[in-house]
Write a structure and sequence with these properties.
With 371 residues, the protein is of the alpha+beta class. The protein has two domains: 2-49 and 229-370, no CATH class; 58-222, no CATH class. Helix content is 54%, strand content 19%. It has helices at residues 2-14, 16-52, 133-139, 170-175, 181-188, 205-213, 222-225, 227-265, 267-275, 280-315, 336-353, 355-362, 366-370; strands spanning 58-62, 76-91, 100-109, 128-132, 146-150, 156-165, 176-180, 194-199, 217-221, 318-319, 329-330. Strands 2-3-7-4-6-5 form a six-stranded mixed β-barrel. A hairpin with a 5-residue loop joins strand 5 and strand 6. Helix 1 (2-14) packs across helix 10. The longest helix has 39 residues, at 227-265. Residues 242-366 form the ABC3 transporter permease C-terminal domain. Its main location: membrane. It is a multi-pass membrane protein. InterPro entries: ABC3_permease_C, Lipoprotein-release_system. This is ABC transporter permease.
Length: 371
Amino acid sequence: MRFALFLAWAHLRRRPLQSGLALSGVGVGVAVLLVALSLTNGFVDGLVRATLKAYPHLVLFSLEDKLPPLPDHPEVVAKAPFAATKALLTRPAEGGRGPGVDFATLVGLGEGGEALYPELGLSLAPGGIYLGSALMHALGAFVGDKLYALSATQERVELRVLGSFRTGNYLLDSGYAFVDLGTVERLSGLRAQGYQVRLKDPWRAKEVGEALAGTSFFPQAWQDTQRTLLEQLALQKEVLGILIFLIVAVAALGVANLLVLKVVEKTPEIALLRAMGASRLTVGLVFALEGVILGVGGVALGNLLGYLLCLYLAQRPLTLPGELYFLTHLPVAMRLGDFLWVSGASLLAVLLASLLPLSRAFRVKPGVVLR
């Protein structure tokens, strides 16, 4: 083993440029993959945070005619009774401005509703409404304007614009508005349908929902209502990972090419070693160790470069056009799991690519070469 390691290291040092290029190819491929995954993680986390600015972590629909009290739970930060309905919002023409009209989902919140969405700065009052930024733009409304909400049953309620909110998720910003619970009850005749709940950890919504539901509530976690979005983001990350992993595969083929050339170049030496009593296993181990050294070194270099690039992008994030995206900067979210599987898969790719020169070294016949 020590002899094989000595020869493998000597071979790599004899061609430092080729060895360095092969090692750098693996390292750059690994680094690019790690940075891309970290940026994707940051984008996904940013989208989830934006969505949850105006979307409940957990909804508990009441199964009883009268809304029962909600049990306490250590994970619950805020809770409020709610009712939601579709309505047509209209703004009458005034002050030289034409009228505005659009459909919206009105979410009526009862006591404690302001604490559900602290980032929106809601201060709900009877007869007031908070509009999504895109919805407010579509209506041509400003703070203080008078709006009318019309229900499917032709009930009409006058509202005053108290403010707007912007999450960055266009579906929410263009189609949602917050009012007090009494407004929805007057408009649609609905009573409180259940509770909207804010949690310390949104990802535990399903677990908490099952604990609180009992026989009085039907739980609905945000992961269920946003399943399509989460699945699309997960698929996007998988496809991106596969495409960029091809860079590592190309780098692995570069390592295989280097080792094949070494086998061809060292064929007389291989034959001489075999004639002096070295076994096929010893000879093969030399080239296997070369592949291991290049693979481990490339993966280590890639992890270091990837980590440093991620730190740099975290300090100086990439800017995004605010008109097109809900984020003005692309965040970075490094995860240990990504580093581990990228390192393992890249090392495996290099080792598999090393099998070709290894098999060629095994087939060298000392008698034929020395003749």
